[in-house]
Amino acid sequence: MTRPAFDDIYMELAVNLAKRSHCIKRHVGAVLTKDTRIISIGYNGPPSGTHNCDEEYPEVGCPRDSKGGCSLAIHAEQNAILYAVKNHSSVEGATLYVTLSPCLACARIIYSMGIQRVIYLNSYAAYKGIASDEGVEFLLKFGVSTEKYQGNLDSGTHLI
User: Fold this and answer.
1) pLDDT-based confidence at 145, cuts 50/70/90?
2) 60-86, pLDDT tens digit by residue?
3) CATH code of the region 6-148
4) Beta strand ranges found along the chain (DSSP E)
5) What cofactor is this protein dependent on (predicted)?
6) Where along the chain do its domains lie?
7) What's the rounded Cα separation, in Å, for the pair 20 and 80?
8) Strands ordered across the beta sheet of 117-122
9) Catalytic pick from 59, 77, 92, 147?
10) Could you give the angle at which helices 104-112 and 76-86 cross, rounded to 10 degrees?
11) Using an 8 Å Cβ cutoff, are 95 and 13 in contact?
């Protein structure tokens, strides 16, 4: 039996975490690691203690904010970072695995928190129909190693 690479293990987990999302538009999962250990996980959805969009607004999803985005959702990478910090785990020097490349707002947070590496599965720009992955470009410009996942998800997980 071949031992899977850590990148494959963590991306597989991110894909599975995305299945926990209550968003009706897009399911995204994230895994935050440091020194080959998981320090936090997250998926997109409303803040804990509020309501789930797929239950409260099953036909249309949550209300839109003034810019057309979800008025309730916290992005998967934000949830992973917030949970780590809330539990006093340092994220500086960590690696983030996420099923959708970070948006620009998330990229700013990732950079500010000192996360050193981001591996993403799918393009945010392609999902949103925009010209470029601004978040990826931002991270690369400021020295955060950022790459599209090139590994092998062969354990039977179906991509989202």
Assistant:
1) very high
2) 777 777 766 777 789 999 999 999 999
3) 3.40.140.10
4) 29-34, 37-43, 95-100, 117-122, 145-148
5) Zn(2+)
6) 6-148
7) 13
8) 37-43, 29-34, 95-100, 117-122, 145-148
9) 77
10) 30
11) no
Q: Which of 157, 9, 27, 160 is nearest to 97 (CA)?
A: 9
Report the C-alpha gap between 42 and 57 in whole angstroms.
Answer: 22
- pLDDT tens for residues 100-144? 999 999 999 999 999 999 999 999 899 888 899 999 999 999 999
Q: Flag whether 75 is marked binding.
A: yes
C-beta separation of 30 from 15 below 8 A: no
CA distance 141 to 158: 33
Tell whether residue 27 is among the known ligand binding residues. Answer: no
> Is 103 a known ligand-binding residue?
yes
Give the residues across from 100 on adjacent strands: 122
Spatial separation of the C-alpha atoms in residues 59 and 75, rounded to whole Å: 21
Q: What are phi and psi of 24, to 5 degrees?
A: -90, -10
To the query of whether residue 59 is one of the catalytic residues in this protein, the response is no
Give the largest Cα separation in the chain, rounded: 52
Contacts with 120 (C-beta within 8 Å, 6 or more apart), sequence order: 97, 98, 99, 100, 101, 102, 136, 146, 147, 148, 149
